[in-house]
Automatic annotation (TrEMBL):
Domain of life from the UniProt record: Eukaryota
Stretches assigned to the Alliinase EGF-like domain: 46-101
Keyword hit for Transmembrane: yes
Species the sequence originates in: Salvia splendens (Scarlet sage)
The protein's name in its UniProt record: Uncharacterized protein
UniProt cross-references to CDD domains, sorted A to Z: AAT_like (cd00609)
Sequence intervals crossing the membrane: 12-33
Record key words, sorted: Aminotransferase, Membrane, Pyridoxal phosphate, Transferase, Transmembrane, Transmembrane helix
Claim: Membrane is one of the keywords in the record: yes
Essential cofactor(s): pyridoxal 5'-phosphate
Family (UniProt): Belongs to the alliinase family.
GO molecular function terms noted in the UniProt entry: carbon-sulfur lyase activity; transaminase activity
Length: 479
């Protein structure tokens, strides 16, 4: 009986030991094994939850609605990123408005002036704050570490398909039968297209653009100094019969930057090749008369979603040889576009395409149309200044005739003595981009309407004051 009792005691102890071992294994596995929702302790935070919590903590930092704090911002004394204030605002929480507006003045100009020459599309920031959840991206530390995507290209096939869907919704471009090339914004793709179109020509190509023209075309073409092409200026100079046998590559900016009007190629003939820069060919900047269907068309995410800092653009290309040459350019330049950039672009496209995909275009058009209306009313009271005329047009997207909503005001000084309109505006603490930058005279100046509400409202105030100082003159028509 005694031996039997001892046996029962040993058996009980063995069971206790086994149970203790099982419990310890469970808790050890909880500490060291990341299962898919299993084996995690109740108090443990996953890497995804931790990353999201940090992002939300920084996004919630109070900056008086006149600035933002960012995860990669400068760290303050409290160990948190500091507020990065909008133009003319300062202080730790961006609550202090400078009466003299120590503003972003295009980096090289006096800080006492207001800069409205930037194409920074911050007017869309409120839209994305409203869609914070659907547009957010959380990236694991091991996300796509390889150079390659599965398959023969360095692009996301899923992003490719979403871009095609987006063009179908916007009704601004036909994608069937076309190849897509990704680039570092439209900037890189513009030169990639010039490189591709000039690669196999019998003689160097003359690169041209109708004036007023976007200055980057000349700047970038000159910078790369390629033996196969050179910038030759205004497209109209190459449009007569004497240049019929000259190889020409024409940049066609439609809508045009700076004046917002839709454009067609000026040069014609068998030796002419066109690159259509459709950065602003979206329903919020222009009427879409019909879907674009040119041989080479370039778009950029910055003017679609406002995410200029992500540096992502794409080209729609008909010819397979041009496509391969453009891909070769991109691969040689940077081994393809950042995988993180492609992931963010994909998430933004998904957010846009939720529902019928029209919300961002409705929002952005309403905002830009409202801005143009306010600006037009100010200039209608002036005979010293005028702005461009953009006629109402039928829009394939809205299925009706609609008015203008351009990204820029193309201002002209009407007084004979005002030869330098940029200087005239600077005296009113407004900086615009001089007409000579667009290969026309300096009676013209470009003002950006794309920036945030703080910048735009300040621009309106400065312009209203400037026009009021004329003494209530009669209106002058646009030009």
């Amino acid at each position: 009986m005694v031996m039997g009792g001892k046996g029962k005691s040993y058996s009980w102890l063995s069971l206790c030991l086994l149970g203790s071992t099982i419990v310890n294994i469970y808790f050890l596995s909880d500490l060291y094994i990341d299962g898919k929702g299993k084996g995690k302790g109740k108090g443990k935070v996953s890497w995804g939850e931790e990353g999201a919590a940090k992002a939300e903590e920084v996004a919630s930092i109070y900056c008086s609605n006149h600035g933002r704090a960012y995860l990669d911002g400068v760290i303050g004394e409290d160990g948190k990123p500091v507020c990065e204030c909008h133009t003319c605002y300062g202080g730790s929480d961006c609550s202090l408005l400078s009466p003299h507006c120590a503003a972003d003045a295009d980096r090289s100009l006096s800080l006492s002036l207001l800069c409205v020459c930037s194409g920074d599309p911050l007017f869309l920031e409120p839209f994305w704050m409203h869609h914070a959840s659907s547009s957010a991206v959380l990236i694991s530390g091991w996300h796509r570490m390889s150079y390659n995507f599965p398959g023969p290209t360095a692009i996301s096939e899923v992003l490719d398909s979403h871009i095609r869907r987006l063009h179908h919704v916007a009704k601004n471009a036909l994608t069937e039968g076309k190849y897509i090339v990704f680039g570092g914004g439209s900037t890189q793709l513009l030169n990639a297209a010039v490189y591709a179109l000039s690669a196999n020509l019998s003689s160097p190509a003359s690169v041209v653009a109708a004036v007023p023209s976007y200055p980057l075309y000349k700047t970038q073409t000159d910078f790369f100094q390629n033996k196969n092409y050179a910038f030759k200026g205004d497209a109209s100079l190459m449009s007569n019969a004497s240049y019929a046998n000259t190889n020409v590559i024409e940049f066609v900016t439609s809508p045009n930057n700076p004046d917002g009007n839709l454009k067609e190629a000026v040069c014609k003939g068998p030796c002419v090749r066109a690159i259509y820069d459709h950065a602003y060919f979206w329903p919020h900047f222009t009427a879409i008369p019909s879907p674009a269907d040119e041989d080479v068309m370039i778009f950029t995410m910055s003017k679609l979603t406002g995410h200029a800092g992500s540096r992502f653009g794409w080209a729609l290309v008909k010819d397979v040889e041009v496509y391969y040459n453009m891909m070769a350019y991109i691969i040689a330049a940077e081994m393809g576009i950042s995988r993180e950039t492609q992931l963010r672009a994909l998430q933004l496209m998904k957010a846009i395409l939720r529902g019928d995909g029209k919300e961002i275009f409705d929002y952005a058009f309403e905002k830009m149309s409202d801005r143009w209306g306010k600006l037009s009313r100010i200039f209608s009271k002036s005979k010293r200044f005028s702005i461009q005329e953009i006629p109402p047009l039928y829009c394939n997207f809205f299925d009706k005739v609609r008015g203008p909503s351009p990204g820029y005001a193309w201002v002209k000084c009407e007084r004979e003595e005002d030869l330098d309109c940029t200087r005239v505006l600077r005296e009113a603490n407004i900086i615009g981009r001089a007409g000579s930058r667009f290969s026309v005279d300096d009676r013209h100046v470009r003002l950006s309407l794309l920036k945030g509400d703080d910048d735009f409202n300040l621009l309106l105030n400065r312009l209203e004051k400037l026009v009021d100082e004329e003494g209530g003159p009669e209106a002058v028509s646009g030009f």
